[in-house]
Amino acid sequence: MNLLQRSSQLNEGISEYYGYRVLVARNLAAIFHELHAAGHHMIDLEPANLHFYPATGWIAIVDTDGFSISRPFGRNGASMVRDDYIAPASYDRKAEKLGEPQNRFALAVIILQTLNNGIHPFSGTSEEGFSHPSDIQTRIRKGLYA
């Protein structure tokens, strides 16, 4: 179930009450608080890697190949990161070198999408007469928050 798509929300009979989306965002933040407390990071964080349970507002992580796992003698770094969720400071770095700041950026983007009916905070178009990039990756890199 994709909470970010309005059609999915309607099909599942999910309340349009804003407080419900705040609850889901809170639950998502709680998951990552615990993950970070254990020293792990989900570098390849995107909505497709999360499963939403409408009846409870709970969320499960369903794809873990993009994790950076803390070990007693080092770290198993992630192998990939999604362009639409990569932090500006992470663009020129390899996925295995990324950590909690990258994870927090992607989490913030997904929480904003959750609160804003699925709209990516860096999506959008420029006003007439302005020449700004239209792709999300470049808009993130240039700090063009919509």
UniProtKB/TrEMBL annotation:
GO molecular function: ATP binding; protein kinase activity
Gene3D superfamilies according to UniProt: Transferase(Phosphotransferase) domain 1 (1.10.510.10)
SUPFAM superfamilies xref list: Protein kinase-like (PK-like) (SSF56112)
Top-level division of the source organism's lineage: Bacteria
PROSITE patterns: PROTEIN_KINASE_DOM
Chain ranges of the Protein kinase domain: 1-146
InterPro entries named among the record's database cross-references: Kinase-like_dom_sf, Prot_kinase_dom
Leader sequence segment: none
Coiled-coil region: none
Protein name as it appears in the record: Protein kinase domain-containing protein
